[in-house]
Structures are given as C-alpha cells and as structure tokens.
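Researcher: Quick sanity check before group meeting.
Model: Go ahead. Protein one:
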Amino acid sequence: MKSKTEQLADMQLRREKILEMIREDGTVTVKALTEAFGLTEATIRTDLRILQKQGFVQRYHGGATLMTGKQNTGALLLERQTHLDEKDAIGRLAAQYIENGDTVIFDSGTTTTAITDSLDHIRRLSVITTAVNIALKLGGEPGINILLTGGTFKFPTLSTSGEKAASFFENVLAEKLFLATACISPRLGLSYPSETDIKVKMAMIRSANTVYVVADSSKIDKVSMFALPCDWSHIHYLITDSGISHAQVAAFEALGVQVLIAPLAVAQKKAM
C-alpha cells in the first residue's frame, strides 16, 4: 500500500495531467477523465474543484474548461517563451529541408510555427496544415498555396481537430511532414496530453513520404498521457537541439531515426 506522501504525489501528478488535457483541448468532460484515469466521478470532480480553486479552470455541469479565452491566450504565450531559443534554432534547421515546389504538411504547435519564420528562400510551396495561425501567417505570401483542414477548432492550440480534420488527408500526397509532439522516447514513442489529435497525426503520417519530428530536447525521454500508435519505421528524422545527449542520439539512430541537431545562433551562444 502506498504511503500518504506517495498518494499525494500521485494526486498532484494526476491533476497536472488533467490540466494538460484541458490546455490542449480547451475543455474536458468528467466522463472522459474517468475513462482516461480509471477513477470514480467523485474523485474526478474533486480534482476539478481543486483546479478551479487554484484559478486554472471553470467547472460546468459534466466537465470543465479553461477560465477565459484571455487566459487561454496567456497559456499559449507562456508556452511560446519556454525553450524559445531552441525552438527557433530547430525552426531554422527544419526550414533548410524544404525546397521550392514541395508539398509540405505542417502540424500545429509552437515549434512547427517557428519553421515558418525561416522560409525566405522559398518561392513556390504548397502547405497543408491544421494550424490556423500558420495558415494566416503564410497565406499572404506570394507563391505559397495554403490548404487548411476542416474540423473542430481548438482555441488553446489554434488548430483544427477531429474526424473531419483526419479525413481531409485521405487523398493527400505530400513530400514532407513536420510533426510536433509533447513527448518522445526511444522506448515509448511519441505521446500527447490529449487523444483528440491522435487520428489526425496518424492521417498526416500516412500522407507524407518523409516525416520529420520537431521537438526540443526537454521533451526527450518523457511520456505524456496518450501514445501515438505508429512504429519507428514511419519516423525518418528527429530535429532537436544540442541538449540531446550522445546516448539519446544513439538510441534513436538504433531505431532507424536520423537525428539532426540544430545549433543555437552565434550571438546566443556567446550570451550563454
């Protein structure tokens, strides 16, 4: 039997995971949480009540949502500041693998968005994306054709999701996919705080000839709530930063995944 300290630690971890799910989707139901954690509705309602007292969520009958749209935006901005230099470096390196005339799929996320800051060398490009912010950012660029998937709009991630978003990719053929992830582990694969995007990400993978996972090194050897059900043969490259260890590089390359390490800008290195 677990000690009281261990029980409190488990409870805190569960509430953090619940909050991750709500930040990902904007809302969650009590039913979905009881199924995900295998707990009673009473326990889940207690968790949501505590998260509401802490100012993170607003409960409603049968579920909870983030407090306000303004707070959702704040969460996004805070996340964008996390590992900002690393994400920008990854974006610059990833952009080098995009060529004129490519058809590219961009997953939603802060790291994939960083790629779009380094496309000055591109004159012709077809982009398919679930990311509304990427569509808005690239939509006015001459020579870039944008296809934005349909589906349910998720404000916290500024993306579309669900069955309609997944079905959009049924007849899509793309040279490259730049795929985001919450966590990546050689042993446990890619994982996410919510299962709502899993079908969409699998549909993207099936539509792409080459798959690049873009993830800063803080996400390596971590695991989130829901695993992406694909094997490593579908993942060709991992683009990350110099925080990855030699052992981690070796572990991924043993699985057939080529690791590309993005250097920080010279000015940033001198400042460190």
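Researcher: Fine. The other one?
Model: Protein two, sequence then structure:
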Amino acid sequence: MQYGFVHESKNCSGCGACQAACKDKHDSEVGENLRRVKCYESGGFTKQGNGYAPNVRIYNVSVGCNHCADPKCVKNCPTGAMHKDPETGIVSVNEERCIGCGYCAMSCPYGAPQMQTKKGIMGKCDGCMDLVAKGENPACVDACPLHLLHFGDIEELRKKYPDGVAGTKDMPSPDMTHPSLVIVPHKDSV
C-alpha cells in the first residue's frame, strides 16, 4: 500500500488552515512549514474592443511531502534517518538517527524536509501516522474547512478522483519522483 494525499485545488480558497494545523501539531517554529499553501497565478490581458481586459486565473495548492515511490531524500541521507515505511509508503525521519546535515532537503525537489531549529534535526510531513494509527485523519485533512484535502491509499484516491494529476506546471515533473500527491486542478492549471 502507498498512502498519499489528494488536494482539490479547483475549489481551494488558500485559507492556510491545513498549514496552520500542521504547524500546531508539530509545534513548528516561524519559517518551518511541513505543509505549505502555494498560490499560482496565470493569464494576462486580452484585447476587447478598443482596450484590454484582464484574463487571469489563480489557484492554490496545498503541498507537504509527496512520499515519493523512489525518494531522493532517503537515498541521500547518510545516516539512514530518512526512511520509507514498506507497509504504508510514508517517508519519515528517525529523530534519533538524524544529525541535521540537510542532505535530504538538498535532494528533495519539493522542499519537504525542513530544519527543526528547536531540535537541530530535520522534520517533514509524516502523514500524521500517529493519528492514522488511531483511525483518525492527518491534522491538515481535518482542518480544511472546505473538505478539499484527503488522505488514504493513493490508488483508491486516484480512482475516486480520476481527473486528478500528479503535478502542476509550476512543480517538478512527476516523472522525476512519482509522487503520491494527486491534485484536482482547474483545467488550465496543468
């Protein structure tokens, strides 16, 4: 099994509740964002009559760790602290083995690993596996007021959201890492 996330960006207001819930759950410092809401803008002006009118689009994407099939952060961790669980596919950090070198952060095309300044080690989205083990959702999922963030078996989520994609034009190619993130986008955002 591979756990992952679906984010329905087509309806996301960009409120940041998911990001705030993650920060609260992990007691993150200012600047430490294991989940981030990114706003993308596109478009411009189109000619209409004697003038121009704005033709712009904005969409938001909630991004954490993509729990890649072949995570570069795991491959480049010199201590083995960064690891992928064979049963869930979740990539997490063994805090007792981490030395805070940052090689995982340098290797990740998504910026998922973040230095935890209080602890002096790396941190990242672990899918709130402590909550999932109790039958609960990750904190970010339950915090979304519009219920646009979902977590579970990535294959089941892909079936439920067949219009989803594995990336947007502003993110690294999904072929690069095979992320376990599905984004249900605006038709013009992919």
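Researcher: One line on it for the slide.
Model: The first strand starts at residue 3 and ends at 7.
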